[in-house]
Amino acid sequence: MSLTRPLSVSGGGVGLATSARPFSLSKVSSKKTSSKTSSPPGRMSKKPCMMTMTFPGGSRDPKIRNNAAATFEAAQQAGIKQQEVTADTEKWESRAEVFEYTSAANPTLNPISVYVHPPELHEVGPTRVIPFDLSDTLPTPYPATGPNLMSSFVRIDVGDSIDTTASATSQAFYVIRGSGTTKTDEGVIDWSEGDLFVLPASKTGTTVHSAVDGGAFGGAALYWVTDEPLLKYLGVSATEKRFEPTMFRREMMLNSVQDLADEKGAAGEELNRLGVLLGNEACPDTKTLTHVLWSLLNSIGPGIVQRAHRHNSIALDMAVYAKPGVYTMMGQALDENGEIVDPIRVDWVTGGVFVTPPGWWHAHYNESDETAWVLPMQDAGLYTYQRTLDIRFVDDEVANLKNGRIRGAAYEVTNKQYTNISCMLQKQLSDENAN
Ligand SMILES: [Fe+2]
Question: What's the pTM value of the predicted model, to 2 decimals?
């Protein structure tokens, strides 16, 4: 039986460009390349200043060929056999591929789809790790919930213990239910429902969790998220810790949200969104949970709609508490009024997790009579550092559209402006050389 439940994807997969089109090296090298013939007709000639293009490779230069021959002779003198060199070089050359730029720049990848990891998984059964493994859909040759993150439930029966291990720069544990202790390379801590703690890279990456109270279902439950897939993709191991182990107590987080509510209440307005970002003293610039992970404790009051937003990070949303009637609508595009086109509805179920795909617009609705809580875990620490999180809120985007603007630096510079900049820099260089 599958542990994960795919939702309807009537909204379609992530829209991507046509597939990449490889072509042979011989085809490319048979063409004469020059600054005149390689440019689209009419484009270069319209430019108001001359821009010099040079062929990047030097192998056609006879002087460099002579240098290569001399190098080879020296290698032979050092005992390197010509056959070995030829075989290795040909092997390296056989791996090189080139693609036509416009059709290959946005390659077809499997979409990251909407899936849920239901709470029933950790509410019954023996002590165990219950992975939210979507590696078949990505695909990856290692367990992964998204390209960078792996999430799991950990169920621990009262009186039991279980080890968890990850080769990761960051591990986060949120206590869904119960209380207990966790032994790590950095020391031993206690935890109870609603607490969250993060661990850096360590010698073993192993923790031992023990439950002393199991709450309503006779076993404690943890929500465990790591960046192990990111490290697997890079082919690296975490050897250096980038932050110290950090604990967020439930009471501290709730008090922070309450302080926020009180502040705004004094102004007589009801906030649409009451949430606190969880930061770490080691990440003062990104203001994130760790340098890779990002989290938010977000509440939504009864009858409230939190309008759509989107970001480039994936969100693995833990529904901390929700009565029936609380849900997220998500989809890939907005219409001109800022409504999500062909949305997928995901209902929040207390203790369950769902995937919000990167880049998708998502809006939260609470049609119940109680405040609902959600704790998204994202790889947004990394995106924030890279300046690529690109979080956008629907009302800003609709206003931009009405003003004829498309946000994003790539669209802010026209071809004419770019040409002017190039000419200005060339003139500046000429002036400097003249002086
Ligand atoms: Fe979000």
Answer: 0.79
C-alpha of residue 331 to centroid of ligand 1, in Å: 12
How far is the centre of ligand 1, averaged over its atoms, from the C-alpha of 262 (Å)? Answer: 24
Distance between Cα 309 and ligand 1 center (Å): 6
**Cα gap 269→391, rounded to integer Å:** 25
C-alpha 333 – ligand 1 centre gap (Å): 15
**Ligand 1 centroid from CA 197, angstroms:** 21
Q: List, in order of start, the domains of the chain with CATH numbers.
A: 115-396 (2.60.120.10)
SS3 state at 250:
helix
- Number of alpha carbons in the 13 Å side-chain half-sphere of residue 118: 11
Beta strand segments in 33-141, E: 98-99, 115-117, 128-131
Q: 207 CA distance to ligand 1 centroid (A)?
A: 30
Query: What's the 376 CA to ligand 1 centre distance in angstroms?
Result: 8
Query: Read out DSSP for 118-175?
Result: -THHHHSSSSEEEE---TTTTT-SS--SSSS-EEEEEEEETT-EEEEE---SEEEEEE
C-alpha 177/C-alpha 192 separation (Å) is 7
Cα-to-centroid distance, 381 and ligand 1 (Å): 13
Distance from residue 315's CA to the centre of ligand 1 (Å): 7
Half-sphere exposure at residue 418, Cβ-oriented, CA atoms within 13 angstroms: 9
> pLDDT tens across 333-380, in order?
999 889 999 999 999 999 999 999 999 999 999 999 999 999 999 999
* Residues paired with residue 297 on neighbouring β-strands, in sequence order: 276
